[in-house]
Design goal:
Blueprint (H helix, E strand, L loop, with lengths): L2 H6 L4 H9 L1 H6 L1 H8 L8 H10 L7 H5 L7 H5 L14 E2 L6 H4 L10 E2 L6 E2 L4 E4 L2 E10 L3 E10 L9 H4 L8 E11 L20 E8 L2 E9 H17 L5 H4 L8 E24 L6 E23 L6 E8 L5 E7 L3 E7 L9 E6 L8 E2 L2 E6 L7 E8 H8 L6 H4 L2 E6 L2
Length: 428
């Protein structure tokens, strides 16, 4: 697991506040937090441009050309290989809004979808998946949902130009990712018992999307993909439900109530702030509580777009392509793997531990059929991407976390001889 990948992952705003409030707690939790962070112009030769357009050659590298082609409804196909959570999301995607009228875009740099006609009256009505607030128009155009995660494609259009500082792939020296990131302040819930708005009130500590990865088509338009971890949401619901029922989470193992998502559900995403760091910093002073050393921290300034973008998104989950292989084996110390689940986009293993052991003391690594380590799917450290890899056969290893990070340093060749547990898994 490479440190630069962890550092490339955006840190949630609340984490910055935690550091601001107490360095000591941040130092104590360093290991756990480390895992969570896991990280133009074109030539105007008419004949050449027309030929390139027909062949689709210049679209990915030329934002000016891309801006004049259909955008909404095609976001997945444009950027699904650029973000840190890659996948063929455009395959079998739900397309809510599609604008294939290239002529209608003319020279405009915005691509907001048109209003829909009411099927009974024929009158134009506002599309609930296109909302404008605070100078930004946000469009939810596509979705693809597996049993592990929901992927949403969004177009964010700014009436005024976004700050150049937001476009770090173009304007920041040494910026490693080939995608840009916008931070989000959100609340999210489902129309499913245990996951409703009442069950997941705003500020309740449950996971919600806090960033979106993608690309700027131009200075006014950002297209990106949000990954929603259904696993985290379901786990959060189970803990909340059972803690409420028992008064403590110690009863979870014996009295767990499992929340299950149906094949069809509604996902509610409420966005109240869209923002990003500027390439300007302010200094702040802090004291290390252990050494009492005075520290000077540099905090990036931010540009915020406050508003109200509330979406009710109908979701169809693809359960047919999920494969689960039950392993249910442990070593003599009780460390092992329960099952391995694979979808079209990602793969994960269920870690089995002895009573009293802490999951953060261990790390699960999955390698493809060629023995090469799979990449983490975004910031989900132990959920791995299957994109572009042979995963009909995979090799699963459980390692001591400290030993893996400090000694193995991600060296796949040493995994087998140093793993606490390993298994080979075959899929159809």
């Amino acid at each position: 697991m490479q440190n630069d990948k962890f550092d490339a992952i955006p840190i949630p705003e609340e984490l910055n506040h935690a550091v601001r409030d107490g360095i000591k707690e941040g130092l104590r939790q360093r290991k756990t937090l480390h895992r969570k962070r896991t990280f133009s112009r074109y030539s105007a030769v008419a004949a050449g441009i027309l030929a390139a357009l027909c062949a689709g050659v210049l679209l990915a590298s030329n934002p000016v050309l891309a801006a004049k082609l259909p955008l909404v409804g095609h976001i997945f196909s444009r950027i699904q290989e650029k973000v840190s959570y890659k996948g063929n999301f455009s395959d079998d995607a739900e397309i809510y809004i599609e604008d294939d009228d290239a002529k209608g875009l003319s020279d405009s740099k915005t691509h907001t979808a048109k209003a829909k006609a009411d099927p009974l009256s024929g009158e134009q009505t506002e599309n609930p998946l296109v909302q404008t607030s605070g100078g930004l128009t946000v469009t939810v155009s596509e979705a693809n949902c597996s049993t592990q995660a929901l992927y949403l494609a969004l177009c964010i259009e700014n009436k005024e130009a976004f700050p150049a500082d937001f476009i770090k792939t173009k304007n920041m020296d040494g910026y490693l990712p080939d995608y840009d990131t916008l931070s989000l302040e959100t609340n999210s819930y489902y129309d499913v018992p245990g996951l409703t708005q009442k069950d997941r009130p705003g500020g309740g500590g449950h996971p919600t999307p806090y960033y979106i990865e993608g690309q700027f088509v131009d200075d006014h338009t950002f297209t990106g993909i949000i990954r929603v971890s259904l696993d985290e949401d379901l786990r959060s619901s189970e803990i909340a439900t059972n803690t409420s029922a028992s008064g403590t989470d110690t009863a979870l193992a014996g009295n767990a109530q499992t929340t299950v998502l149906p094949a069809e559900f509604t996902y509610y995403l409420e966005i109240s702030d869209i923002y990003a760091d500027l390439l300007q910093y302010e200094e702040m002073q802090a004291t290390d509580p252990e050494t009492h050393e005075q520290l000077t921290l540099s905090e990036p300034l931010k540009k915020h777009y406050k508003g109200k973008w509330n979406f009710a998104i109908p979701i169809s989950m693809n359960k047919d392509d999920a494969q689960i292989v039950n392993i249910n084996r442990k070593n003599e110390n009780g460390v092992g793997i329960g099952s391995v689940e694979k979808t079209n986009f990602e793969i994960k293993a269920e870690l089995l531990l002895p009573e009293g052991a802490q999951p953060y003391d261990y790390i699960v690594i999955i390698c493809d059929a060629n023995g090469k380590r799979l990449e983490s799917q975004g910031n989900a450290v132990e959920v791995f991407s299957t994109f572009g890899r042979d995963t009909k056969t995979v090799y699963v290893y459980v390692c001591d976390y400290i030993k893996y990070m400090d000694e193995l340093k991600g060296d796949n060749r040493k995994l087998s001889e140093n793993a606490l547990f390993e298994t080979e898994v075959h899929f159809k």
